Amino acid sequence: MSKATTEQPVAGTTIFTGTEARKGYALNKMCYSFNHAENRAAFKQDEDAYCARYGLNAQQREAIRRRNVLDLIAAGGNVYYLAKFAGIFGLNVQDLGAQQTGMTVQAFKQKLVEAGK
Amino acid sequence: MAQIIGSVCMSHIPMIGMAINRGLQQDPYFKPFFDGFAPVHRWLEKTRPDVAVIFYNDHGLNFFLDKMPTFAIGAAPEYQNADEGWGLKPFEPLPGDPELSWKIIEGVVADEFDVTTCQEMQVDHACAVPVELLWPNTTPHPVRVVPIMVNTVQHPLPSAKRCLALGQAVGRAIEAYEKDLKVVVLGTGGLSHQLDGTRAGYINREFDHLCLDRLIDKPEALTRYSNVELVDLAGTQGIELLNWIAARGALGGNVSELHRTYHIPISNTASAIQLLENRPAREARLRRTG
After folding, report:
1. I need a surface site. Which of A31, B110, B146, B278 has the fewest CB within 10 A?
2. Which residues, numbered 98 to 117 in chain A, qualify as contacts with chain B under a Cβ-Cβ cut-off of 8 Å?
3. What is the crossing angle of helices A105-115 and A93-101, to 10°?
């Protein structure tokens, strides 16, 4: 789990501050466009062109290429917008949770069930 | 005069919308949550509110990060739901009550809340799912709505203290409205959950119960927490608790808790339902029904 810092005081957590919002603006703007089915289709058809259209920087482009949620957050992504990106692949927030915690989806879901016992 | 009969606060998870879409209410995974609405439905049947004033947060449907209001009040004749990226079938449009919206806007601005006003506004799952949960399978919906959006997405967020005060100002504005209307207040989201980071899956049952208890008789006790403390205690998205605090503010002093459901998990979330009845409204109702 990532350590707490003055800027990010809760361990394992990136609070979406103005710093993050500035850093991730292009990435989040692209993900916001995925509200529309035709934009999701355009992304799938030509990912490079679609990312270029939104002006993603190299770090953001690479994180999108790798479908890596922690890298996307490090690049300024906000999870509500990343959930729209994940939707392109039929993934939900439990899939995202499993990937970020290095667990299988089944194990992540079980962890949540255990929290209720 | 308009009267606030009580509040219903509840989780608004997209997966609940999906479950409604697919008719999974009796599926063992969802049943404990959906069953929690039976007493709420009975109460709504008895009290029959005309309008629902809904404190919620937008997740990137109507508001993007290009222009992000801290508080935004809908003043539209109708509110459309739409695709949020997952291709789910949108919920039916919700009818608005622009006249009440403007009374609330005038009231809260007079109380020095500088809100954004929206004569066109789409509403996402955080507004549409709760209405569908409270009035299932009824089209058109039997209530008009006034959506009040609270920024719980891009920090700095309004403080818990400010959200409680906003709710109080909204409550005063509603009660100053000369029309005979029954208003129910909704607060949506929460309770504890975190979707992002290596701490994803974080849940805090103890803190959730403390919040549910304090919301009844001492909501101001929750205003001692900073938003960083709330993220720490409730998770990055658990901070949607701010919507519940605002809803509670609209009720005023004395309330009775008529129902509570707390169930872990739905998706990544500790799901909850809390029905609070405004005590003066309750006494009036009991007098009427003898």
Report:
1. B110
2. 100-101, 108, 111-113, 115-116
3. 100
State how many domains chain A has: 1
Pick the CATH number of B3-289 from 3.40.830.10, 3.40.50.1970, 3.10.20.740, 3.40.50.1010: 3.40.830.10
Residue range A59-99, pLDDT digits in tens: 999 999 999 999 999 999 999 999 999 999 998 899 999 99
Determine the Cα–Cα distance for residues A78 and A24; give it in Å rounded to an integer: 8
Q: Which positions in chain B have a beta carbon within 8 angstroms of at least one beta carbon in chain A?
A: 14-15, 59-61, 64-66, 82-87, 153-156, 194-201, 203, 205, 228, 231-232, 236-237, 263-265, 267-268, 270
Q: pLDDT tens for residues B182-214?
A: 999 999 999 999 999 999 999 999 999 999 999
Per the annotation, the verdict on B12 as an active-site residue is no
> pTM of the prediction?
0.97
d(CA B288, CA B87): 47
DSSP state of A36: S
